[in-house]
Amino acid sequence: MPVQEKFAIAPHLAFDAITAGAPGAPLVLLLHGFAESMHCWRAQVTALGDMGYRAIAPSQRGYSPGARPNPREFSHYLIDRLMDDAMAIAAAAGYGNARFHLAGHDWGGSIAWGIAYRHHERLASLTILSRPHPNAFNRALATDGEQAQRSKHHKAFLEPDAADIVLADDARWLRDRLAANGVPTEAIEMHLAVLGNKQAMEAALAWYRARGAIRGPLGPIRVPTLYIWGDADDTVGRTAAEGTVDFIAAPYRFEVLPGVGHFAADQAPERVCELMLEHLAAHPV
């Protein structure tokens, strides 16, 4: 089972993380999205550790109490800072100059795409869940009315009272959202233990308010990539998902999970573990 550790990258930036595997083994860094937490990766962290990897899934900026700059200062939550955090966590774990495997879901996927473009020489492989390549996503937003409809909740997160709305009635919105996507009750409680308070939620929403998504064109990805998409995903449509292939200049595998929603690692953990282990074995460090 995973254990919990802390990784400090600066005096006021100490990240909680769940980990498994021996230090020094090939690193797999796993980045969570919204509205979940590091615990979305617990099955994958366990499986990776059992297979000889060093798996680290941090609770990212704003989600970790020890790494929560003032969320009213949105510059603290720009995507460049989130990418820098991930690379610094790898360094703090002892992999400062080593190649490693990177995985990301949702917002963590956005960060992972950016790292794969910016630091491709550091990555042995890239695994993405539920987040198309930014160019494919932006193209779908511009041309596919269905994708624009799926993404409309992003604007609601910019409102000043968004945290109160999401957390009202014992976080009813959050519970309903996760449950509707097949996230087990036990997992929902784990995520709420991290995210179900006003301070954490305001910081998580600061990622949206910083307008931190990659909006400008991103170059082709030159890292072997596995992209996992559930065809019941209510936020990412088929146009954006299938269009990702246009922006990969490396070995690429696109896996569709029938009937799986946005939170694939929680809803279909065994299949995600299987696919990840195959991908990492095919592209060793």
UniProtKB/TrEMBL annotation:
PANTHER family: EPOXIDE HYDROLASE. One of its GO terms (molecular function) is hydrolase activity. The keyword Transport does not apply. This is AB hydrolase-1 domain-containing protein. Residues 26-267 form the AB hydrolase-1 domain. Keywords: Hydrolase. It comes from the Bacteria. Gene3D superfamilies: alpha/beta hydrolase (3.40.50.1820). Transmembrane segments: none annotated. It comes from Bradyrhizobium valentinum. Pfam families: Abhydrolase_1. InterPro entries: AB_hydrolase_1 (IPR000073), AB_hydrolase_fold (IPR029058), Epox_hydrolase-like (IPR000639).
